[in-house]
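Below is how a single chain appears once it has passed through the pipeline. First comes the sequence as given, then the structure the pipeline wrote out for it. We keep one example in the README because the format questions we get most often are answered faster by looking than by reading.
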Amino acid sequence: MVKAAGGASEQILGSEYGSDFGSGNASAANASARPGAREAIDRTVSGLGYDVVDVERSGRGLLRIFIDRQPGRSYPTGAGESIMVEDCELVTRQLQYALEVAAVAYERLEVSSPGLDRPLKRSEDYERFVGAEVAVTLKLPFKGRKIWRGLLARAESGWSLVLNDGKEDQALAFSLDEVREARLVPMVDFKGRSKNVVPATQDMAQQPGVDGGQDR
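Resulting structure:
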């Protein structure tokens, strides 16, 4: 995972992806949405040509934003679909200004790649990763299980996972409303090296507007 981080401003941020921001901690769960905060993040990140994958607020005022490149788009920071540390630096600088204008409070801003186990949040995410191996956690158990893993495919009324139990392929159909969490399954080749690699984590050296961050 790659990331860049930076310093502060003033007001509390909420997330359209859920009150817990995906972090599962009490401080995040108690955060409330304020008009303009999420819009400022989405507008700034998309304006630079990136997708907002997720937003989290953690302890000690940490505001963490996960971004991804848009497929088929060229970037001055380098070729490929993996987020680079330069992408995170660029987005961090622009977000610091946008969040200050929107009066969003935070002690530290961290912009990161979504990692190898990238979460799927929106229907656009599912569409993008059709054919990829995905782990889905359902809100309610099906056949005694909540966690299912298979190849993501489109279905008539939503989505499905193509399951292979070693004998024959079966499909688990589901809608997004039934999903608690969905993530890509990292691909590893016979040498034990990941195929869907993002660049190694790099902490940004302290400079105006950007400070170092710790790994997720």
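The domain at 3-112 is CATH 3.30.300 (GMP Synthetase; Chain A, domain 3).

See the next section for the split statistics.
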